[in-house]
């Protein structure tokens, strides 16, 4: 599985990149045919504390799944997004079996 990370409006540090790679590797346990994941980390221009958005696009053969989560930290956004992707992948896998 290939993970592409793009940061919008800020520079991403190595620790965050490692966290994203490590967290998204767990999604592959649920479905081994994942082609790639595109991760867009955005720093929204608002006075709100919850201004860090992680948008993830997961590509599997024949479909793509998009998840967007916003929270106080990028780690939390990525974690919530990865959980949502895991649920989507499990549903997708169940549909494939039918």
Low-confidence stretches: none
Kindly report how far apart the N and C termini lie: 25 Å
Oligomer: single chain
Fraction of residues in β-strands: 25-35%
Mean pLDDT: 91
Total count of domains: 1
Order of helices and strands: EHEEEH
> Helix count, per DSSP?
2
CATH topology: Double Stranded RNA Binding Domain
CATH superfamily annotation: Ribosome hibernation promotion factor-like
- Report the major sheet: 4 strands, mixed
Tally of DSSP β-strands: 4
Write the CATH architecture name.
Answer: 2-Layer Sandwich
**Radius of gyration over C-alpha positions, nearest whole angstrom:** 14 Å
Spatial order of the strands forming the largest sheet: 1-2-3-4
Q: What is the global morphology?
A: elongated
Helices and strands: which structural class?
Answer: alpha+beta
By CATH reckoning, the class would read Alpha Beta
- Proportion of residues in helical segments: 25-40%
Protein name: Ribosome-associated translation inhibitor RaiA
Pfam families: Ribosomal_S30AE
Description:
With 98 residues, this protein is of the alpha+beta class. It has a single domain, classed as Ribosome hibernation promotion factor-like (Double Stranded RNA Binding Domain). It is 37% helix and 34% strand. It contains 2 helices and 4 strands; from the N terminus they run βαβββα. The chain has a 4-stranded mixed sheet with strand order 1-2-3-4, with helices on one face. Strand 2 (36-43) and strand 3 form a beta hairpin. Helix 1 packs parallel to helix 2 (74-97).
């Amino acid at each position: 599985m290939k993970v592409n990370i793009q940061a919008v409006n800020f520079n991403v540090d190595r620790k965050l990149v490692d966290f994203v790679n490590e967290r998204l590797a767990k999604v592959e346990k649920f479905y081994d045919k994942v082609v790639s994941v595109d991760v867009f980390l955005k720093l929204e221009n608002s006075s709100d504390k919850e201004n860090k958005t992680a948008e993830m696009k997961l590509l599997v053969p024949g479909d793509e799944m998009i998840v967007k989560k916003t929270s106080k930290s990028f780690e939390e956004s990525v974690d919530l997004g990865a959980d949502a992707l895991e649920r989507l992948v499990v549903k997708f896998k169940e549909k494939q079996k039918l």
